[in-house]
Amino acid sequence: MSVKIRLILMNFLQFFIWGSWLITLANYWFGTKGWDSSEFGAVFLTLGIASIFMPTLTGIIADKWLNAEKLYAILHILGGITVFCFPLIQTPGGFFWIMLLAMTFYMPTIALTNTVGYNALKQKGYDVIKDFPPIRVWGTIGFILAMWVTNLTGNKASENQFYFSAAASLILGIYSFTLPKCPPQNKSSKGASFAKMLGLDAFKLFANYKMALFFIFSMLLGASLQLTNMYGDVFLDEFKLIPQYADSFVVKYSTIIMSISQISETLFILTIPFFLKRFGIKKVMLLSMFAWVLRFALFGFGNPEGGLWMIILSMIVYGMAFDFFNISGALFVETQCDPSLRASGQGLFMMMTNGLGTIIGAYGSGVIIEKFFILENGNRDWSNIWIAFAAYAMVVAILFAILFKHKHEPEKIVNIQH
Known about the structure:
single chain; mainly alpha; Growth Hormone, Chain: A; 74% helix; globular; disordered C terminus
């Protein structure tokens, strides 16, 4: 089996695991368990908490002590066992802690997927910029298929969504032991300081102004990444509270509608090599930031009838918003970091986006919604919620355009496989 096919299978299962429950969790939380909405945001905080330390820690381990593919396999096996226990939890507090454990195992595997994939492609002499995006697109396909399986089998609000995820995680864990070897690149510790032995020298990336600014904006934009995962399906479902929309297609098949976002990802991933080589990383990331503005604003003005086109367009725009930031950001780290720090650099990128960024987004959005956007009848004012999110994304985009300086070097992108 070719290395590309093997990496396609890895990426497919990697995101099938997440897609099985991430978008539909709210339906299980509110519908099946009947738990309080004020505690739901805390569950998404676990993604951020785990991403603060685990991607960096596992990146250090992969750089120094343990083959990345073996570490990747172990984390997925432990994660699968943990997710299998989700249906056994009977309290919101207990669910928070078991979710935190599961995310501690899962979140670092996203960065390790890049590390293992880049390494395997380089071993075979492939161009990472050209050849990785068509492989990564299968991760998005896996996410989409998981959403469809969960929704179309009638398990949108059932515990079976967790069993789908756990099974895929265990399969990927076992399979990962067969992936191309990705040994540590920074083993030497003779004469090194204690901090360097622990891999904390990876944080010296912050001493570089451009890298520090990149990580700061990664955190600020990261606050936007999970907002539609947290609230998107619930937003569409709550159109049922408006009589004229109660029986609409959007309400009945909200998860299928949401999956258009992931379908869009599969298309935009394939355009990344062209955009990066033509316009450079800064302009690609700016396109992502303005796409987030559109994503939220279109939600703010859309509805299941006359405004359905806005909801659909918002789903399509999501592909550019998500991919152009995450994929180009990971490739930026790959081109800017010393080889001995690349795994750690990917971990730091994950920490800032899915760690601190997610915490800011999950906690901040919850506070803002409760304080400013609850109507007198107790319903959420979704239109103004999304417009507020759009305004935030616009401010971040403008500041990034002004402050982040990066010269486009096409030859460096072409030669990334060195």
